[in-house]
Amino acid sequence: MTTRRAGLLTLAGLVLVVLVALLVVVVVRHDREPPEAGPTPAPSSAAPTGVPATGSPAQQRALLAERVGYGAGVTGGAGGRVVRVTSDADDGPGTLREAVQGDDPKWVVFSGDASIRLDSGLAVGSNTTIDGRGRSVTLTGPGTDGLLLDGVSNVVVESLTLRDFGDTAKTEKNDMPDAIHLEGAKGVWIDHNDLSRTGDKLVAVSGGSSAVTVSWNHFHDQEQTFQIGNQATSEQSADQTVTIHHNFFDRNGYRMPVISYGRAHVFDNYYLDWRLYAVRAERRAQVYLEDNVFEAGRSKRAVVTKPGGDGCNDTLTRCDSSPGALRSVGNVVDGAKRIRESDPGSVFDPAATYRYEAEPAGSSLASSVESGAGPR
What EC designation does it have (predicted)? Predict the structure, then answer.
């Protein structure tokens, strides 16, 4: 009897052990498996709109995946240290000025919204990304320069608002400070920014700057908007290469851009109501103008291919009245004069230089550019 009772107890114990093991398996499977309501969505490497950039590897990869054009090889501060801006002051610990110094790779992000008034131009070092995604980051500099990219390489400027540099009352007289000035820079990507009201240009590219892409920016409230090349650096300017795509040029004066001597691929931009003209190719520049939307207002001239006046600079020390070469492909003009090409056979073919896909020009493109341009 004792032996039988012991056997029953042993059997009960084994049953209990088996039940406990089964319970553990069920619990573990419940913790590890997704619910039956549907599959778990794949994680996205891109930061959703409005989410602050942290400089994480995933966010870096997501941004760099959008590169197109001459600046497609720009990496900025990818793989370097992440630097966080914590102060709105012009200079000192935690400031943007401190963050962008030096040529070591650095990805600059912002701990919160920022409004920074510059006391002098902000010199940006090589191998730098300034990433304002998900924050409201505004830079101003009445009486002075904005971002200075002089002799540097591999720089990304992303999702900033830049306004009120120099003397904005003198914008028609070339008051020198620009919002972003490139001088002999190699490899620059200016993307998703809001630029307005400067004494001279919102973006100026000179001194042989090359491998530049300017994309998805909102240009507004400005007379002289965007200049590539000039007579003072004509020899270096001949080597300049710039891609300009998906920008919203919103009721500006003129020069969107003006190109002298270098090469520019201008595609999928939306031009709305300019005062004098939208695009100018002059002084032996080559411009491939592709699938842009021109919606005229105050002026009917969308494109010009000769310098104004006698072709001389403001001080009359240099004069070059030679025309530029321009090829027009797939552009749509609404209320403007027909675009006249100029020596189109001499214009370079961007498709032979880099890979890209141009969207057909039309109302859909104009709407997407208008809504998508600017900081995000």
Answer: 4.2.2.2
Question: What pTM was estimated for this model as a whole?
Answer: 0.86
Domain hosting 367: range is: 57-372
Task: Give the three-state DSSP class for 15.
Answer: helix
Count Cβ neighbours within 10 Å for each residue of 282-303 and write b for 16 or more, e otherwise: bbbbbbbbbbbbbbbeebebbb
Could you tell me if residue 19 is inside a domain?
no
CB 162 within 8 A of CB 177: no
Q: Give the burial class of 198: count Cβ atoms within 10 A of its Cβ; 0-12 exposed, 13-18 middle, 19 or more buried.
A: buried
Domain CATH for 187:
2.160.20.10
Kindly provide the residue ranges of all beta strands, DSSP E only, lying in 87-228, ordered along the sequence.
106-110, 114-117, 122-123, 128-131, 137-142, 147-150, 153-158, 161-166, 180-183, 186-191, 194-198, 203-206, 210-215, 218-220, 226-228
From the candidates 67, 163, 255, 376, which is the catalytic residue? 255
Q: Identify whether 15 is part of a domain.
A: no
H or E segment and range at residue 266? strand 263-267
Q: Does 337 map to a domain?
A: yes
Backbone φ and ψ of 29, nearest 5°: -65, -35
- Identify whether 343 is part of a domain: yes
Task: Based on the residue annotation, tell me whether 117 is a catalytic residue of this protein.
Answer: no
* d(C-alpha 106, C-alpha 242), whole Å: 24
How many domains does one find in the chain? 1
